[in-house]
Design goal:
single chain, mainly alpha
């Protein structure tokens, strides 16, 4: 149970991101995208996520970049607030 003075908490999403070198052909990137998107819709994957009370979320390359960038400011504020920035 959290301390009584905590009335709200920010939960930062975790990201699992597949990275590739800049010179990977776009056709290969498309194949990887399609394969991972297909896997993200598999029932076994969804069942595994359910065990951890997680929801599936698949983002394409551009949306992934935006999501990671958008999460940085709140995460940096949290790290600063907790005094973890100078470890």
């Amino acid at each position: 149970m959290p301390p009584r003075d905590i009335v709200a908490a920010d939960v930062q999403p975790g990201f699992l991101v597949l990275l590739a070198a800049k010179d990977v052909p776009k056709a290969v990137i498309r194949q990887l995208h399609d394969a991972f998107k297909l896997a993200a819709n598999e029932s076994a994957y969804k069942t595994a996520l359910d065990k951890f009370n997680l929801e599936p979320l698949y983002l394409n390359s551009e949306d992934s970049k935006k999501a990671v960038a958008d999460s940085m400011e709140p995460l940096e504020k949290l790290v600063t607030r907790l005094g973890l920035g100078k470890m």
